[in-house]
Amino acid sequence: MAISGLENLVERWERLFQDYFKEDIESASLLYPDKKSLLLNYWDIDKYDSELGEYLLEKPYHALYSAEESLKNIDVVGEIPSIHIRIKNLPEARKIEIRDLRSFHLGKFISVDGLVKKVTEVRPKLVEAAFKCQKCGAIVKIRQEGNMLIEPHVCPSCHRKSTFKLIPEESIFIDSQKIELQESPEGLRGGAQPMRLVAYLEDDLVGSSVPGDRITLNGVLKVQVRRRGQIKLTEFNKVMDVNSIEIKEQAFEEISINEEDEKKIKEMSSDPMLQVKIRESIAPTIYGLETEKDALSLQLFGGIPKTMPDGTKIRGDIHILLVGDPGTAKSQLLRYISQLAPRSIYTSGKSSSAAGLTASAVRSDEFGEGKWTLEAGALVLADLGVACVDELDKMNPKDRDALHQAMEQQEISVAKAGINATLKSRCALLGAANPKLGRFDEYSSLADQINIPPALLSRFDLIFPLTDKPDKERDEALAMHILEVHRYGERMERNENVEADKIKPFFEPEFLRKYIAYAKRHIHPVMTNEAMEKIKNYYVDMRAKSKETIPFTPRQLEAFIRLAEASARMRLSTIVNEEDAEKAIKIVEYYLTKVGMDRETESIDIDIIATGMSRSQKDKMKIITEIIRDICTEIDAPAPVEEIISRGQEEGMDKDTIENLIAKMRREGIIFEPKHGKYKLTGE
Questions:
Q1: What is the rounded average pLDDT for all residues in the chain?
Q2: Which of 21, 225, 336, 619 is the most exposed place for a label (fewest CB within 10 A)?
């Protein structure tokens, strides 16, 4: 690194550009001012002049200044404008985690990865200020450094102390923007607070990233003075002067998969027991729940997102809701999935607000200097991953409404404080909720039991009730399993060597994460005619069988397709075959018999989920409405409950059903009770 003198440095850059990058420079100059940068790969510089490459890493400001100066000496077609030199693909040793940045990195060329958390508006920044002397009218130009405006004190023309006025039209401005980068959540240790770094973008780099983007920033780490009032402190803030941005277009680049991993992944994909092994790798300490774990494993892989020629987008992510009795390990399953899925976020609905889940406009005095800035929430940060939301039913209804757009359109719109933005939230949602009365009742509709509106429930592809019923054989096996888990834990505490085949996951979480990332990155299966025929026939047959009820809607048809695609992806297959279609049908059928079964007609009725009421229930409500209307007309007074029950029984309904329906109609405001035991229709 013995490069001495600026002339020597400029000459070396000139020689390098002339010999190896002449074509790139010419094409960049022709595209000016649409393109203001020449983007170079660090390894190309290092290959042709390793000494210069090393100097660039150690003394970046000096090296880049001399490189931009040397460009002025290159002969190209037309006049060469002021082009920035931007460097990408720095050596591995220069890729530093935000939490590992230290004082010895100051002034060095480094690279950091993370998520864009906040961005400010784009502002003009003064680089060369033109001042006019108020006494003699002379124009004084001063180059600006740092954030503080440098003004002249003495006029160089009349040599007098004077007041100076800034002339904006003769000054040179460039665009500037400030962004805040946060560590990626998947790299955090449990409970660790994500570290953040403020970075400054200039000129053509501004506006290239929005909150939620995963990017790599290449630039120089420097310090910024901290003040307490007028007093300057000896502790400084770390900030980054960004030289180039690499936006991660490809999914899951943060999970590195080497050749050995790839070989093992491909080997495992041909295992006929693969599905069982992946299921057994999901929360092995939790007993049973085979179908639920199968569905969760498919959710990890997800279907294929599609963009149609007319711009319509169809989501590929599978949304699952777990509803269940206390002690059925819902939260534990969510926790496990959040650790298993690449790019996942775990949050509890009880402590989450709409702003924390989606996105918010925040007013930050330190970051945005009192202006409104956009900040990404959990669903945006989980983009392309899984968002696990526990206690979904405990959320504030206003906050829960924010999930509608995020689940179906997979976008989040923010319109607040003059900021209108749309952020991506292409994540699968795994929710958990508790029934209102503590335990799940199979004979009561789902909407009556959970504090979640039917419109939101219908957006879930799968809903699983986790019930806890006494069953001697199952209880014995469950008790034995829990006891073994605890004994294994006790022995581990004593550092004993114990075999734990039942409790140990078949695939280590680290390997499974790599397997999922590899599948999502490379595998995009297409349906075979046989698979399409299988799903179509099942869908049409089920709808034809039930004349009275509607067993499926196109939403369930899309769930079949997504699950079948995920099943093919799990096998690293490029085609969705009949077996995948069968697996999807089996899972959807299982879920609908659990939560979409009308117990009176013993048939599947999707209205139970979509509207909170079965078709047969609606028909009976109509009958009771007519009975109340008739009685009120006959006696010109509110209808007595005994008379309603009596006439309802004549129509073939039992007393309990009538009483339940009257209570439901009263709750929903269809009828009201002006006197005790007497009812009238609302609005009549």
A1: 77
A2: 619
